[in-house]
Structure formats: C-alpha cells, structure tokens
C-alpha cells in the first residue's frame, strides 16, 4: 500500500538559486513527521510544493496517489494545509470564514454547520466564534487557520508552524489534538520548536541548504547523550555532505 504522502526528487529553483534540491521522502498513515531546518533551508518552499501552491522545477509530489500538479483537485481533497502566516479574510468573523471555507469544500446545509462546529470544538474557538478575525490575537488567528485545515477531516495534514503564537496551554492543547488525530492520518509539521518534535513526532527530517541531511526518529537522533538541539546545530551549521547524499541515522 502506497504512502499517503510521496515526494520524489523535488526541486525548486529561483533563477540561479536552488531553494529545494532533490528532496525525497514518504509519510505513511500513523506517522507524524517533524520537518526541521534553519531559516531559508527550504522547509516552507517544500511544503508549498507538496500542497500544490507552488509548482516544482523538477520532481513530483503525490497526496493519496494524486500528483499535486497533474491532479491538483484530487490531491487537495485529501489535504488539510495550514500555511505560513495562516492567511484568512480578516474582516470576516470566525464562523463566517469557516463557513466560507466549508462551502468551497462543497459542504451545504446541516453538514456545513456540523463541520464548522466540530472544527471550532477541536480548536477551542467557540468563545470567539462571532468576532472578526482581525480582532483576534496571533494565537487565535493560528487556531482559525488550523480549524479550516481540519474542516473536511482529510487523511493528510501539512502544518507549517501550527503552534506559532500560542501560549503554553494552547500549545499543549494543539499537540494533544495532533496526537489524537495521528493514528488515522499522515501529518507533516514544519516547526522551529525542537521540543515539539520530541513531544508529538514519530520521525524527524532535518533539511539544510535545500537538502535532506538526516531522516530518523527523534529518539535515535538524541542517543549518545546528544540533545535534539545539539544534533540540529551540528547538522545545519556544518559543511554540506561531500557527495550531496542525505544522511540517514541507523
């Protein structure tokens, strides 16, 4: 059975600059992949290509078997995407925006109402449901973005900094939600928060200079007395691999 997310030799160039360089990996149902890297490493560009929001220069990405370029509608039906910055329509209320997103997804009537209500329940937005999004804190705006990604209960979630701007209690709630959803989904989380990887991820990929430098469970990366922070710094501050190959921890 094919993985729910398949990325093969994905590459993105902007003129003479290569932002993502021959990246390949797959994510199965039940996996939560932490996608790590310093600023400018190519994380967000990879996730935008996976979500079909940016065409690759070369390579392919598939969601539930659907190529994101050749079959974009089929791929996006199976995807919940929280992009960087969680863009919304700020003048809309929370309920209005989620209802708008649900209609785009094809929901109508009582099913639309139920989908919106469940997404707000999962992300604990009921208390601000009638507020314009522009009046919300950064953390609540992030939760609105997460709610729209969950509306259609997709098998694949791609979440760029899902706990950015949340307070410690809110971070705990979102991480607990991810753990509860994980058995039925393939989830990719891009984050700068290394503790988040240890808390919710079953696997970690570190990308530097557009290339995968390690792909292993967090418990493997932290062995021999090294913290994940130590491993991250060593891999992202050091020189690139001589042969350009990705390193895999045994």
TrEMBL record:
The reply to whether Nucleotide-binding figures as a keyword in the UniProt entry is yes
Per UniProt, what is one Pfam family of this protein? ABC_tran
Domain named ABC transporter is located at 5-234
Q: What is this protein called?
A: Multidrug ABC transporter ATP-binding protein
Q: Does this UniProt record's set of keywords contain tRNA processing?
A: no
- List the Gene Ontology MF annotations in alphabetical order: ATP binding
Q: Which InterPro entries match?
A: AAA+_ATPase, ABC_transporter-like_ATP-bd, P-loop_NTPase
Q: Keywords for this entry?
A: ATP-binding, Nucleotide-binding, Transport
PROSITE patterns the record matches: ABC_TRANSPORTER_2
* Family named by the database record: Belongs to the ABC transporter superfamily.
């Amino acid at each position: 059975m094919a993985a729910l997310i398949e990325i093969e030799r994905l590459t993105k160039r902007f003129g003479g600059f290569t932002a993502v360089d021959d990246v390949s990996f797959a994510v199965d149902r039940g996996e939560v992949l932490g996608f790590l890297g310093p600023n400018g490493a190519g994380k967000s560009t990879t996730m935008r290509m996976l979500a079909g929001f940016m065409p690759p220069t070369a390579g392919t990405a598939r969601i539930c078997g659907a190529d994101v370029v050749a079959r974009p509608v089929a791929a996006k039906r199976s995807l919940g995407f929280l992009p960087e910055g969680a863009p919304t329509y700020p003048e809309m209320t929370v309920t209005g925006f989620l209802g708008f997103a649900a209609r785009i997804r094809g929901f109508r009537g009582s099913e639309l109402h139920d989908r919106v209500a469940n997404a707000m329940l999962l992300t604990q937005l009921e208390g601000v449901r009638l507020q314009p999004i522009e009046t919300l804190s950064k953390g609540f705006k992030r939760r609105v973005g997460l709610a729209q990604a969950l509306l259609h209960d997709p098998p694949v979630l791609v979440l760029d900094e899902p706990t950015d701007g949340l307070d410690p209690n809110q971070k705990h709630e979102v991480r607990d939600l991810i753990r509860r959803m994980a058995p039925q989904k393939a989830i990719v989380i891009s984050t700068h928060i290394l503790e988040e990887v240890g808390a919710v991820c079953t696997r970690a990929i570190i990308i530097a200079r557009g290339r995968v430098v390690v792909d292993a469970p967090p418990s493997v990366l932290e062995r021999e007395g090294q913290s994940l922070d130590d491993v991250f710094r060593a891999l992202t501050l050091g020189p690139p691999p001589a042969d350009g190959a990705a390193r895999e921890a045994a």
